[in-house]
Amino acid sequence: MNNHCSCKSVLELHSFPSFDRIFQDINITYLHFMAIHNKIKCKSVIMKIFIIVCCAFIGLVLADTPKYTTKYDNVDLEEIIKSDRLMKNYVNCLLEKGKCTPDGAELKRVLPDALHTECSKCSDSQKKGSRKIMRHLIDNKPEWWTELENKYDKEGAYKKQYREELKKDGIKL
């Protein structure tokens, strides 16, 4: 019996916390953890909603971005390239030295914006077509190309801006 009493007195001397106190501390820690977890979860939900709203807004903006008309995308560029007379008519239209066909007038109207916005409103067909015409003019009619550069890129800003990109397509400015 003495041994038992001495163990009990040792436990009392060291004042170990009671099981109730341990469980109370665990419960407080758990509740604190859950409160933090709920705050994080709430912030996570808010962040997800914010990202969804931003994506929807960007989608709306991009959907509303007007594109240039594709009405003239089927013009036979090969036919124009083969004919100096046709090509010169388009060049004169752009230089305001001659009458414009409807597609030439549309090109003249959008060309400054297309240069400024890196053709962001162009269809793929329009981008390919512009490169084809540029290549032809630079390689075969450099004097016409120079006239167009003098009208639409007097400071050479676009030439500098597009040089590397066009170089990849084999067009040397």
What does this structure look like?
The protein has 173 residues and is mainly alpha-helical. It folds into 2 domains: 22-65; 77-168, Antennal chemosensory protein a6 (Orthogonal Bundle), CATH 1.10.2080.10. It has helices spanning 2-14, 19-64, 77-82, 84-94, 102-116, 124-140, 142-152, 157-168. Helix 6 crosses helix 7. The protein is rod-shaped and about 100 Å long. Keywords: Membrane, Transmembrane, Transmembrane helix. It holds the Pfam family OS-D. The chain crosses the membrane at residues 45-63.
What are its keywords?
rod-shaped, 173 residues, mainly alpha, Antennal chemosensory protein a6
Overall form: rod-shaped
Provide the residue-averaged pLDDT. 79
Q: What share of residues are in beta strands?
A: under 5%
Number of helices: 8
Give the SSE layout.
Layout: H1 2-14, H2 19-64, H3 77-82, H4 84-94, H5 102-116, H6 124-140, H7 142-152, H8 157-168
Transmembrane segments: 45-63
InterPro entries: A10/PebIII, OS_D_A10/PebIII_sf
Pfam families: OS-D (PF03392)
Brief digest:
With 173 residues, the protein is mainly α. The chain has two domains: 22-65; 77-168, Antennal chemosensory protein a6 (Orthogonal Bundle), CATH 1.10.2080. It has helices spanning 2-14, 19-64, 77-82, 84-94, 102-116, 124-140, 142-152, 157-168.
